[in-house]
Amino acid sequence: MGIHKLTAGTGYLYLVRQVAAHDRTHTGPDSLGDYYSSKGETPGRWAGRGLAGLAAGMAHRTHTDQGAQLWNVETGSEVTEDQMKSLFGLGVHPNATPLARHLMAQGATRNGALAAVKLGRPFHVNAGETALQQRLAVAFRDHNISQDKHWNAPIDEELRAAMRTRIATEMFEEEHARPPADERELTGYIARGTRQLTTSVAGYDMTYTPVKSVSALYALAPLHIAEIIEKCHTRAVEDAQNFLQDHAAYTRIGAQGVAQVDTDGFIAAHFLHRDTRAADPGLHTHVAVSNKVRAQGTDGIWRWYALDGRPLYASTVAASELYNTRIEAYLGAELGMRFASRAHTPDGKREVREVVGVTPELLELWSSRRAAIDAEYAVLAKKFQTEHGREPTTPESIALFQQANLATRAAKHEPRSLAEQRQEWRAQAVGLLGDEQALNAMLGRCLSGRARSAATITSDWLTTQAQRVIAVVSQSRSTWQRTHILAEALRLTRSTGHANTDGLAEQIADIALSEPLSIRHANTPDTDLGEPALLRRKDGTSVYRLAGSQTYTSAEILAAEKRILAAATLTDGRRVDPSEVDLALLSEAAHRRQLNAGQAELVRQMASRGQRVMLALAPAGAGKTTAMSALARAWEGTGGSVIGLSPSASAAQILRDEIDIDVADTVDKFNWLHNNPHADAGDPAREWFDRIDHTTLLIIDEAGKAGTLALDAVISAALARGASVRLIGDDKQLASISAGGVLRDLAHSSQAITLSQVMRFASPAEAQAGLALREGDPSGIAFYIDHQRVHVGTDAMALDMAFDAWREDNEQGHHSLLLAPTHDLVTELNERARLHRLTSLGDQAPTREAGLAGGSRASVGDIVFTKKNARMLTVGPNDFVRNGYRWEVSAVEPDGSLTVTHLESGTHRHLPGDYVRAHVTLGYAATIDSAQGATARHRCHTVGSDRLSRQQIYTALTRGVRENHIYFSTAENDPHRILTPKATHPDTAVDVLTRALSRDAAQVSATSLQRETADPRRRLSAAAHMYNHAVGSAAEQLLTPAEHAALDRHAEEILPGLTTATAWPVLRQHLSLIAANGYNPLKRLTAVVRAGGLDDAADPAAVIDWRLDPSGSHSGGTGPLPWLPAIPSRLRDDSRWGPYLSRRAELIRDLDTAVRDDVAAWTAATAPRWARPIVGPDTTLAADLAVYRAATDVDDADTRIAGAEQYPARLRAAQHRLEKRAATVVGAQIGHRRYNNLVDSINPRIRKDPFWPQLATHLAESSRTGVDVQQLVATAAAERPLPDDLPAAALWWRLCGTLSPAIVETAHNGLRPDWLPELHNVFGSALAETIAADPAFPALVSAIANADAQRWQPLDLLQVAAEHLADADAALTHHLRPDEYARLLTYSIDLFTTDTPYDHDIPTPEHPPLSDEEYEELQHLHPDPERPHPVADPLVLTDALSDPDVLAAALGFHDDLPADPRHDLSLAPPDDEYAAPEDYIDFDSLSTTRPAPAAALAAAQADVRALRERYEAALADYETLATQVRSTTGGPAVEAAGTRITAMRARADADRPYLAEIESVLDRWHDDDETYTSHLALIDAAQHDYDALRTDADSDPLDVASAAQHLNWLKETVLPKHTPAERWYPALQEATERREAAAGGADNIITHADVDALLAQCRAEDDRLLGTRRAELRRQLDQLLTAESAASRAFAEAQMRTADHIIEQLPRITTELRVLAAAGHNTFQPPLHLDPEALAKLSANTALTSVAANPFALTPVTATDRAALTSQMAVLAAAASADDRHIVWSAPHDALNDPYITALHPAMVDAATLRFEPATTTPGTIVVVDHAQRLTPTEIADLAESAMSADVRLVLIDTDDRQWSTAPSAPLLRLLNKDLPWSRTLSADHTVRNHPLPSQSPDLQAAVTQASDLDPQQRTPEITAALAEYERLIQNQRSAHGVHDRLQSMSRDTGRSLGRTRAD
Hints:
Layout: E1 2-7, H1 12-19, H2 32-39, E2 45-47, H3 65-71, H4 81-90, H5 96-105, H6 110-117, H7 131-146, H8 157-176, H9 183-193, E3 201-208, H10 212-220, H11 223-247, E4 250-253, E5 259-262, E6 268-275, E7 281-290, E8 292-296, E9 302-306, H12 309-314, H13 316-335, E10 339-341, E11 353-355, H14 360-388, H15 394-407, H16 418-433, H17 436-447, H18 459-476, H19 482-495, H20 504-512, E12 519-521, E13 551-553, H21 555-567, H22 578-591, H23 597-608, E14 613-617, H24 624-637, E15 641-646, H25 649-659, E16 663-666, H26 667-675, H27 684-690, E17 696-700, H28 708-720, E18 724-729, H29 742-750, E19 753-754, H30 764-774, H31 781-786, E20 790-792, H32 795-811, E21 817-820, H33 823-841, E22 850-851, E23 857-858, E24 863-866, E25 870-875, E26 879-881, E27 886-892, E28 898-902, E29 908-911, H34 913-919, E30 920-922, E31 926-927, E32 939-943, H35 950-956, E33 963-968, H36 981-984, H37 989-998, H38 1006-1014, H39 1016-1037, H40 1041-1054, H41 1064-1076, H42 1081-1090, H43 1100-1107, H44 1129-1132, H45 1138-1160, H46 1172-1175, H47 1179-1191, ...
């Protein structure tokens, strides 16, 4: 059974159009009932015990028979579309619309009627849209309007996708000032922008599906049998639903949902389906369970609440097994069906029981349909991502899936009725089996079975089965609950043949859960303190105990855990002399590798402490192998022996090789040898096992993957022989599949040694990020997205991307891993790898193959895995074929056996064929679980999913030394799950990974569970909530029914709608408590409401509850905690409530005391990080804070002193008191605001990142060392743009590689480096011991070890760091604390020892930053005029259904209102004001501390120019290729195949007549079939009439004779003598033979479909080539942008340091000044008069008019749209001709000779040759220079001065549309366009897409512009003079232009005045 959530809003349409409409899309205008009728489907039916509660609304109303009918929804009644909309879309009564109309007809008001039909609070439905949705809506509307369609007309999905991609990319660029860096950013942006704003859960969709063989029989058996199968299925579904209503139908009430109470039951809609979406047999039922349930509160009032999903999910497996058991029982009883386990069960999956007798190939036939759809969908999805550069969204994915479904259908139209479907299925089955007889034989085998005799049920038999159940469950878990046991008991009863014995599974479960088989375990007494009846459920359990939460374990597991923990306390083991250990360490350093301090300490401790059992925790890459090797040498060096053990054989062999020991084997082998002392005396392993004694050391590697029972057996056997055991593992990596978790207990109780320094990775930051993943910290994800290691695409695309990246690594000779989470995905990757290898071999590929396990094939050269230990197959003298070994196939024998070569040792081995077929698989890829312990020397590529666990993510992303990548899908593509949160609230990649990190799949031991359950800090919060609820519930009981009613009535009068709010029951209890203390609650309520602030509250009752009683005194004293109420005196004296509430209060006091006792034992080393500054100075405050944090559920990882801001007034007051006390001890937490301006200047999104508070804290800590934080942050941020997600965390990972090494913080590090005495000498013993005990001490040890030993000695580093911190401390208001020194010393030393040490002389602020309160007060009194308060987000999320008008409209009442004609106006037109200003670098703000040499600028600019040329060339190539690919002729692949395509087309044309003949035969055959069938139907009807007349005694004999004659006539005359098949099959054969003969054989037939397929293949190849070029273009663009940034920085530094680069450009400056001087010369030419009609047809008519009227000598013009420019120049030429003015049309020489350039005029001349003499030049001459940017600046200057001398006007047209123009005069034209007020833009090509630059590239600027930005102190006299001249010219031109404008204005005014005068 599957289950998933359904979201509210318009999601009910899915239930109607997909689920209710039988997995098809019902979109027609007819009703759902009409659909059922037309399709012959079974209608949806209402079910569930909760239906009875729907009629409760009429209890106090006068009602008619019609009203009663509307209030009631009968079980089994048909589901209508309106009902679905009301219940699942809006959360109101299913008949809400007709019921509300009925009530209004009876006199109720509209709002009164709406209130009556509500089922509690309607669903929270947000009415807003995101910015992306709004922009898309506008774009869709505009597109439709441009196509002359209705604004809301459907748009082709492919076009919608393209528009979505384009607009999302544009919006991303607008927000981030850069394009998306990869497909993850673009996909994530669209996901965030298309999320539905509605998040309410409408219900749950449960799907019940029988095994495939049952569906097959349902499709093929006679109709009567099929109906019986359907009935059995329906009964099984009902049984499962009843089970869930008995055990999982609860709701939660009270604050925080603390009380779980019974409900009436479910309201559910059942939809029976007979087929799958692939149109194959697939009997299944969707049960849509509403989230609305009715329950009675503690005040005795029945209300509607939300269904508690926790027990529902917990019971799903048991309900599924119950369904499976019941359907087997019913089918066996009704039809004699027998079930048996399927022959092959995939690894890791439970066995599947199918009906005995069903042919497996039949099931595979129908399964292949879905496989075909999936394959086609994969092709479409890959094509989509290639075209759009992103993963398709959920709607796009589902559209692609539906397209794939249609593309793979054999028929054009789906069957309309069950009869038609059954006919099709039967034909398919007959086609597979051969004939009808074979099909009937199979049906006979299935339906003629007899149930085998089952064992007699006795008490001994029940006990035995219970033991079997416990054995199975306890194998995989240390603790269990009843649902686990019941599910296994149900499976067991099916396998024993007792499926039809009612209640048997429950009996077995009861015995299994009783002693001695199970022990109640980890019970907390907090949930049941003798609750009164009011606080108990109907089964007698407390409402505070979660139903079904009772935990059990076994005595065996508890004993095993206790023995392991006890063994760790024994210290009588062998000890190695410390001097021998030191010698071993020196030897290891000399011959292998130098150990770091942590590794060396681990070796010393494990060798010399004498503990019998010790644990070392080793994170991934921490160097455990090196440490174990040294340990083995130390142990063996003193006469001991070392044996290695591991959970797997391959890991054991790796351990043996890596630490160089003689013996290594599996844990299971060790235990087998111990348990079978006399078996197999010849086994070589017996020899080493029998030698184990007190000198033996057992090293158990990957101990976390060994089960508790197995570890206990090894340890017990070792202790018995005197041996010592060392466990090595990581409790944060993948755990055992058996019951485990004991490593965490050992780490907790015995202070395990931790290898704290991670060394595997090439990047220190990656090592740190990996450790964050290890702890489940989602900030670690930021490193991977920042380095583009996270890739998204559809499942198929993710597989492709991972495989391609891995393949590229291998082809380049790198060692990389390819991983996937499941065996199915690994198999697919292996098949891909093999196919690629064979394809690359071409004709050289081997032909002989061997069959492998799972159906794969292998040939010579393939890589394979052996999957089963085979000790009889030896490998060399000391090894054997092991599970997990990888081999290369060197020979394939005819019998399927293989000769293989071991990849590690090179040893050859022959594998028998039977072993190969059963236990060998392809070995290119591996599962994540099997890769633990493996290392990829280059990269690791992992195919992920949205179901990974934290351990899998951590393991997968820590295998590669250099890089680790993960690839997965984020979108939902299953139409059945279109209402799940994943579909309606699509995930980003970060969302998927964050949720995975929160999914802790670690095994939890029974001991750990008991410890956690008893932890007072974990219990206090729940205890406080229970106390609060209990006191409130008791206070309610003091009110009489009349007082209850009055309280409700007055509350509603004070604030209408208050009593229907979700939190009203909680507020009601609070008001009752006030009343119980003798005060008037209504006065308090009125005062809070009058205070206001409730208008925009989502739940006003909750807000009022928070604000009541701000003093915290509760008007009656303080309770067991300062913010909890005291027990009112009336309740203390109550015999029912007084003792119980006192027990609850006493429990809180006891827990308070226990928490304080724990805090008393804390030290600065062992305390949580938030408490370390406080533990020493003020232990009482630390205890008060610990109690507060425990009671309010503040996680220890939250370093804020008192956690997040609280809302309830009384709790907020307590929080503020604690924060003020803490501020006096450690100072205010002011780090967050100190760096606001800094990070905002880098990226304003940084402070929106949830990680920002932690980053600010890190920066504040760093600043206390005096480090230049601004410089560090700026340098890190400048590396590349920060990612769109988690930018603060990404920035931290860039910094952390500089600030601290990758270490695991641990309070028990045990490190004692050689320089520890020097630490005491420098800092004194007290502070030194504090530093050494600090969890951050390993980082300090690592920092000193990493320093250059030639430059730094430990003492020097410590002294320098101490002096530096002393200087920094002297400037601090709040001085350095002892708990800070370890971390700050690490920061200081790391930065001192880097190649570029920081400037540590930056003074700290004279005054500390403002506190939060001071900042808010200052902002209130003196707001910053430059930083106004932020405006409200235009997207306001409002609860639409809280508005009665909206709810009425949703229910259809808008039909009663007059239509508003404005409703058809759709959306408002979009704003056009999107232009953003250019982003210039502020050179003055750049750092001056590191000036670059002049050569750096020249090199940077040369690099930029080279990259520009490469990019422009690549862009031109890409555009050429894109044009070719999109043309009708096609791209390179199509062109190459052109001859072949032409030949195939000719052959297809030749085949067409023969194909038409065949089609004609088939068509006539079909017509004859229909005629023949209709004649048979007439004969059947005539026969029926004849039989009826004959049997009727009153029939007229003439009528009987007439009927007989008619029947005979039909048979003899009408019905043809031959069947259609007899007539047409020979004709079909003849036509086929003629066709084959014409083609030269059947294999030579070519159709147009074949040609189209080849063409499609070629086009796909062209698309792939285009995608590759596009990716390369993006890569080059990224390089160019990076180089541009570097050049800008180099230029900015040069501007501050030297003028050399400007002096070199003085000739350019002179030329530019010449042009500017000539440009401002007024020629006093009269304006050209443009034709108004011609002008009106142009887009830029105003600009052209200005150009025509401009009198100045030089007019710069920009025109990049060639077509528009040509039209404009034609108008200009016509005007000149009309005014008898001369225009000289010119262009540079190269432009004149360019065949691709269209000339503006037939008579074009070379512009460089033009010169003008005043005497010979025609007055009023205008010179137009096309492509002026191609002239040199000198040529333009000469031409301008010549024009000025002859009063000629010069129009320079810049046509360059390139972003990085390299044209000679491009900078000069930019200068002219910027500085000349009369410059104009005539046209712009909007299809040209430019990328936002990080700055305006300096070398693209004019020389004088560059000189203007030069530091004034660097300017030479020549430069100063030139700039002065430049300023003078600019001022003159502005003045001249201003005078010209005023004269023009005066002229126009005069003209208008004269015109009026003439008119008068």
